[in-house]
Amino acid sequence: MGIIHESQHPLVKQKLTILRRTSTDPKVFRELIREITLLLCYEATFDLALEPISVNTPLGTADGYNLVEKVGLVPILRAGLGMVNGVWEMMPGSEVWHIGLYRDEETLQPVAYYNKLPDAPTVQVCLILDPMLATGGSSVAAVDTLKTWGVDRIKYVGILAAPEGIEALQYAHPDVDVYVAKVDAHLNDIGFIVPGLGDAGDRQFGTI
Ligand code: PRP
User: What is the torsion angle, in degrees rounded to the nearest 10, for the CA atoms of residue 25, residue 27, residue 30 and residue 31?
Assistant: First the structure.
C-alpha cells in the first residue's frame, strides 16, 4: 500500500491555517499554495535516486551527487497550476506536463479536456500536483493517464484530502504515495471537503 503522508511540519500547519481562512485574499492564497507545495515536495522527494560524483572545489575534491531520475511535475488544471512554480525552481531539471480535468458538478465524475503527453514517456517519476483530493475521481483519472503513458513511479501531492478520496485512490492505485498538508474530516453532500478551504481554483484565480 502507498504511503499516506500528512505533514507534521509546523510551517505547513501554520500556513494551512491562513490558507483556509475565508478572509485570505487571492494574492496571499497563491503565495501560500506555492509555499506549502514546496514544503510538501521536500518531503515527497526524499527517495529520489542519486548517483555519486566528485566535484572540484577551490580547495580540493569533494564527494557529491547527481539526481539520476527525470522528474515530471504534473499539475491538474486548473487548480494545480499554482503548485508548479515553486517546486520547479527547486528542481529546474524537471519537466512540466499539464493534464486538464474538471469535475462535473452534477455527477462529480472527472471530465478530461487536455492531454498533450507524447507517445513515449520522457520522465521516470511523476508528481501529480492538485490541491484537493475530494472524491478521488480526478486523481484516479490522472494516475490512469500517467500509467497509460508508461510511468510507474507516481506520487500525489495535494493540500487537503478527504478520507473518501484517499480510500478511492488507494483502492484504484495502491502503489501511489500521497503527500498532503492535512486529511480533513469528510465530504459534504455536494462533494466539497469539510472544513476544507472552499474552491481552490476559484480562490487562486479570483473567480469566485
Ligand atoms: C477540483 C480539484 C480537483 C478535483 C477534486 O477541481 O482541483 O481536481 O476538483 O475532486 P475529486 O477528488 O472529487 O475528483 P475542479 O473540478 O474544481 O476544477 P478546477 O481546478 O478547474 O477549478
Answer: -110
